[in-house]
Design brief:
The strands form seven sheets. Strands 4, 6, 7, 10, 11, 26, 27 and 28 form an eight-stranded mixed beta sheet that branches. A six-stranded parallel beta sheet has the order 14-13-12-15-16-18, sandwiched between helices. A six-stranded parallel beta sheet has the order 21-20-19-22-23-25, sandwiched between helices. Helix 1 (3-10) packs across helix 20, helix 6 packs across helix 16 and helix 11 (353-364) packs parallel to helix 12. It contains 20 helices and 28 strands. It has three domains: 6-182 and 486-577, Quinone Oxidoreductase, Chain A, domain 1 (Alpha-Beta Complex), CATH 3.90.180; 196-329, NAD(P)-binding Rossmann-like Domain (Rossmann fold); 344-462, NAD(P)-binding Rossmann-like Domain (Rossmann fold, 3-Layer(aba) Sandwich). Strand 8 (123-124) and strand 9 form a beta hairpin. The protein is α/β, with parallel strands linked by helices.
């Protein structure tokens, strides 16, 4: 280990007189920094309940672009006047503690030199106060962290980082945590205790349904045209029971207003549904994190219109089964959320940084899919995907195919069906926020497949899907937004096990002065992966890893196989560029 790198890692050196930062004073690139440059600020002393931290690395995210474009109008900035009260971008952050406030030191949870990653998706008293949004983020050399991060609804939003991890890959625990979250169960999969349940049947239906578990959970049960078997089951509960029969199609919304004040039902059960139009109307009335349970044996008469935005942001769940037991639809055992082992996975929009992570996860996942199909409409990105993942797939004993539907005579559907001998994919993951592509993705699945909406579209973005497969074949529709600190910890655990390489996502690096250029590069899709800024390094131009061989050969020599960013490359970079403050004697 080089002497400069050793001193940097120890964090035992005199602090500089100033900390340089990129404050954001309003919407637009012209409001970032001071005339397009970072500004110097004095380094503050922490109070008894604060930490003084050094920012080691910051991943640039398209979310930074959204804040830059919207300024104080961004939803998480609550119409803040940034010209008076600026914020700072940078929520994918790794840091080192420099000083610990008295009370925090006494508690013993933090100490100088400790390395941490930030979990930025923060809530306090139910209000989103995300780091890098409401709370000024990591595009700074040194800053204070206090109760706004340490005392949240989920506790401290700081994750201790294993010392063997590099700074860049530690910062990328955040975006990788979002990817990991997409394959963890976020849906509520049982009737809500104390909730409102609506059971909708068919007039004159005499089916003898059972509800082996969970019917005693709701406080209120609404019945519409249900068979006598359901009435008997409900009469044995303690719930308040109300009947609303013979509804016209336009009457469903009025039931929602009457019994939920427009917030939606916690749980809805539809028995032997036949009309796709009726299911579409009822699906609009699911509460946030609510479920729609479809129980039947015959397909609907068409596709169902569903809200793609709510699947992603509100975690609504479509569950179902084709038995007589309504309970059989619920539970994690019946509703998977991860990729099918040894199956086929299709990734729509695989060329962006997050799409690449999904593909990489699938290829490195133990017992992951045997066939991976990566689609991308940009040929340059598609070529990068091939360069990045063809060798990895071969190493893992997997097959990976690449496809650009815009320059092929085949449609994506035809390509997938040919590759799967007409069976379709076990899993389809959409990383492009376009409703028509989400609809097309539904046609690529096997009847028992899973469709993951990773890209978010606004609530109210509607699309047509085959919900008949939910109850006839156990198809899954899932979506996630954000992450928890546990998701980041899971990524770090897999990295330590050697089953995931976050450093593979790094495509470009730059020093402090290049932060604005780095954000512009994300807008322009200049680099095929993540851009990482090292705020402690000055005068380092923004460059791709491919450029290192010519511009920084001593750093390039430390890259891993397939030009992967490594801790050795990071050490070489810090040895070359970092300068510890020097004070005259």
């Amino acid at each position: 280990m080089g002497e400069k790198y050793k001193k940097y890692r120890s964090a035992k050196y005199h602090l500089p007189h100033e900390s340089w930062a990129w404050n954001l004073y309003g919407a637009g690139m012209e409001n970032m920094g001071n005339h397009g440059k970072p500004e110097p600020f004095s380094i503050p002393e922490p109070n008894d309940d604060q930490l003084l931290v050094r920012i080691d690395s910051v991943g640039v995210c398209f979310s930074d672009v959204k804040i830059l474009k919207q300024g104080g109008n961004h939803p998480k900035l609550y119409n803040r006047n940034l010209s008076v009260d600026p914020t700072r971008l940078g929520h994918e952050v790794s840091l080192t503690i420099i000083k610990v406030g008295k009370n925090l030191a006494l508690a013993g949870n933090y100490q100088p030199g400790q390395r941490l990653a930030v979990q930025p998706d923060i809530y306090q008293n139910g209000l989103s106060t995300a780091y890098g949004y409401t709370i000024p983020g990591g595009l700074v050399q040194y800053h204070l962290i206090g109760t706004e991060v340490l005392e949240t609804d989920a506790g401290a939003c700081l994750l201790p980082v294993d010392d063997s991890m590099g700074y860049a890959e530690s910062a990328l625990l955040e975006p990788w945590g979002c990817v990991a979250a997409a394959y963890t169960q976020r849906r509520r999969l049982d009737p809500k205790t104390g909730g409102t349940l609506w059971i909708i049947g068919q007039p004159d239906d005499t089916t003898e349904f059972t509800f082996s578990k969970g019917l005693d959970a709701p406080a209120t049960i609404i019945l519409t045209d249900v068979p006598s078997s359901i009435k008997r089951l409900v009469s044995a509960t303690q719930a308040k029971v109300i009947e609303k029969n013979n509804l016209a199609t336009d009457g469903y919304e009025s039931v929602g207003r009457e019994f939920t004040d427009g917030k939606g039902f916690d749980d809805i059960v539809m028995l032997n549904p036949t009309s796709a139009h009726v299911v579409s109307q009822v699906a609009r009335l699911i509460a946030r994190r609510g479920t729609l349970n479809l129980v039947g044996t015959k397909p609907l008469d068409g596709l169902v219109q569903v809200d793609f935005g709510r699947l992603h942001y509100d975690y609504i769940a479509f569950v179902g089964n084709n038995t007589l037991d309504i309970r059989a639809s619920y539970g994690e055992g019946h509703n998977r959320c991860d990729l099918r082992p040894n199956g086929t996975a299709v990734f729509v929009g695989a060329g962006g940084p997050m799409g690449q992570m999904h593909v990489q996860r699938a290829l490195e996942l133990p017992e992951g899919p045997r066939l991976v199909i990566a689609t991308e409409v940009n040929d340059e990105r598609l070529q990068t995907l091939q360069e990045m993942f063809a060798p990895l797939a071969e190493k893992q004993g997997r097959t990976v195919l690449f496809f650009n539907p815009t320059n092929s005579q085949k449609s994506l559907h035809q390509f997938v069906m040919e590759a799967t001998s007409g069976r379709g994919a076990d899993d389809v993951i959409v990383s492009v926020p376009i409703a028509r592509l989400m609809e097309e993705a539904d046609t690529l699945m096997k009847p028992d497949g899973m469709l993951v909406f990773f890209a978010g579209v606004p609530n109210g973005t509607m699309g047509m899907v085959n919900l008949s497969n939910v109850y006839l074949s156990n198809a899954q529709y899932t979506g996630t937004s954000g992450l928890t600190i546990n998701d980041q910890a899971l990524v770090m655990e897999r990295r330590m096990e050697g089953t995931l390489s976050p450093g593979r996502s790094v495509a470009a690096i730059g020093g402090l002065e290049t932060a604005a250029e780095a954000i512009q590069s994300v807008m322009d899709s200049r680099y095929p992966g993540k851009v990482v800024i090292f705020p402690q390094i000055r005068n380092l131009p923004l460059m791709s890893l491919k450029e290192l061989q010519e511009r920084l050969p001593d750093v390039a020599a430390k890259l891993g196989e397939d030009m992967i960013w490594t801790t050795d490359a990071e050490e070489a970079l810090i040895e070359k560029f970092w300068e510890a403050p020097v004070y005259p004697k």
